[in-house]
Design the sequence.
């Protein structure tokens, strides 16, 4: 989706999430400028339980004269024309859902809502401001000539990348280097991150922390404040050497707002946020930073009189105890009594990613399940399973176990959404249908399986930083010819994709 595709609509409403931060404000303003200069009736809005309170954000809106409007959650008629949610996804828990004639989504977080229709989501970018900058450049909009716009975009990137220290995408750096900004105003914003009242709230919160030394996590209950202050407290906590994971929460409106941080590979903050809010709210974000909201009504129905402090501490402890951490490089599976299975010789697809001309070493695989980062090395393969899963593997893990066929793979028979590989450095999209060929599992693909009685986070041989998640009832599988090569088979997949070939192994 390009901005030019949206010019058919008028009027246009640009909606930030309910607690807009600098990234949401900056990216919304970029869109506002573009459509304003295209002669559209355009407005910037946000909603939620409270208006912007944080000192630096109020200053940003005032000094840059951002035309941001607060609108009530209730009683709003459907928005005519087009509603664009920016730095969030329409229908997600962190943005009020307003009815509209048409909806588009522009965001840099991982996909939370399926089948959004018109959307542009690039989760590999450090900020949504970067994405808006890219989209403005696609239309030859003179973004680098506007000091006010440049300052807004820069500050959005600055705040969302931990003061520019987490710019992992070259396009973040490109924007940072080229924007025309007001350095004096940026200094004012940076030096107004807290009011005296917010300093007091943060200070009181941090001296009232609870700490779990076994799992190295901290939980803090803050006084009511701008939700962005929760993130500031979380960021500070993670600088403590004894803390690997932290949760900060407070009451807001008719519920609880949470901020989650993690600095270890064993815990994805977005996954933890979803776990804490499961069934009573919603949560998500990035691997290191996430947030969420819990409905007080749903919480009361499920947990009655349980104090929130007790809930969060108990739930955090359950999260750590629910999952066993397994690193395939160190783990030795006990094969005693395990049954052997063979992968059914059903037709599957494969793509050798490193053979696609133009794909860089880091790209994004976009599937119906969301975006996945690809670390493209020599011999990188994607296996297109017949149940719609896509597995990244290496030549040593693929070629001995599959017979490669020369016929094209029909992705439509398996996938409702066409998978693509996106190289955002080169701004190129590769359609897997152009490269996918067929393969069949051969007789070498035999595994021993062990049913899990608890959750597992498995770091396979081919990925040191990302884990495969298995829940109770799923299976831990080990290749018969290399028992250290282990992976997860989902419960339903064993019967659908594998068949037993022998009695138990005698050891």
Sequence:
């Amino acid at each position: 989706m390009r901005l030019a595709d949206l010019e058919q609509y008028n009027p246009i409403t640009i909606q930030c999430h309910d607690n807009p931060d600098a990234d949401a404000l900056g990216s919304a303003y970029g869109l506002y400028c573009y459509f304003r200069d295209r002669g559209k009736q355009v407005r910037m809005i946000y909603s939620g339980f409270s208006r912007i309170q944080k000192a630096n954000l109020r200053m940003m809106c005032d000094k840059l004269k951002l035309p941001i409007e607060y609108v009530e959650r209730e009683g709003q008629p459907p928005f005519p024309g087009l509603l664009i949610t920016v730095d969030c996804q329409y229908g997600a828990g962190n943005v009020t859902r307003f009815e509209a004639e048409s909806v588009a989504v522009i965001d840099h977080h991982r996909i939370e809502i399926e089948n959004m229709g018109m959307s542009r989501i690039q989760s590999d970018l450090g900020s949504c401001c970067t994405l808006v900058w890219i989209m403005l450049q696609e239309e030859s909009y003179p973004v680098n000539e506007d000091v006010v716009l440049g300052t807004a975009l820069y500050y959005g990137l600055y705040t969302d990348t931990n003061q520019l220290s987490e710019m992992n995408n070259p396009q973040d750096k490109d924007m940072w280097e080229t924007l025309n900004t007001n350095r004096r105003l940026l200094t004012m914003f940076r030096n107004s991150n807290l009011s005296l009242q917010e300093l007091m709230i943060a200070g009181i919160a941090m001296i009232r922390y609870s700490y779990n030394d076994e799992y190295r996590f901290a939980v803090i209950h803050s006084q009511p404040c701008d939700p962005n202050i929760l993130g500031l407290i979380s960021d500070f906590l993670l600088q403590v050497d004894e803390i690997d994971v932290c949760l900060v929460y407070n009451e807001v409106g008719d519920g609880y707002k949470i901020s989650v941080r993690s600095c270890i590979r064993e815990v994805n903050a977005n996954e933890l946020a979803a776990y804490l809010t499961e069934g009573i709210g919603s949560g998500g974000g990035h691997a290191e930073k996430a947030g969420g909201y819990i409905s007080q009504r749903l919480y009361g129905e499920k947990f009655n009189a349980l104090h929130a402090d007790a809930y969060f501490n108990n739930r955090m402890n359950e999260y750590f105890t629910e999952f066993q951490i397994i690193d395939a490089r160190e783990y030795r599976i006990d094969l005693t009594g395990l049954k052997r299975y063979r992968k059914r010789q059903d037709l599957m697809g494969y793509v050798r990613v490193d053979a696609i001309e133009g794909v860089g070493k880091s790209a994004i695989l976009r599937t119906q399940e969301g975006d996945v980062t690809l670390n493209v090395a020599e011999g990188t393969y994607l296996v297109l399973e017949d149940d719609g899963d896509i597995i990244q593997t290496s030549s040593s893990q693929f070629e001995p176990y599959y017979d490669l066929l020369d016929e094209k793979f029909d992705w439509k028979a398996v996938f409702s959404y066409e998978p693509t590989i996106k190289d955002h450095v080169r701004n190129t999209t590769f359609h897997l249908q152009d490269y996918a060929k067929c393969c069949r599992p051969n007789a070498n693909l035999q595994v021993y399986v062990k049913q899990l009685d608890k959750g597992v986070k498995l770091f396979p041989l081919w990925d040191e930083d990302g884990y495969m998640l298995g829940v109770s009832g799923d299976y831990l599988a080990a290749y018969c010819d290399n028992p250290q090569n282990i992976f997860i088979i989902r419960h339903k997949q064993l019967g659908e994709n594998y068949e037993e070939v022998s009695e138990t192994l005698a050891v």
In short: The chain has four domains: 3-190, 196-321, 328-342+444-507, 346-441. Residues 328-342+444-507 form one domain.
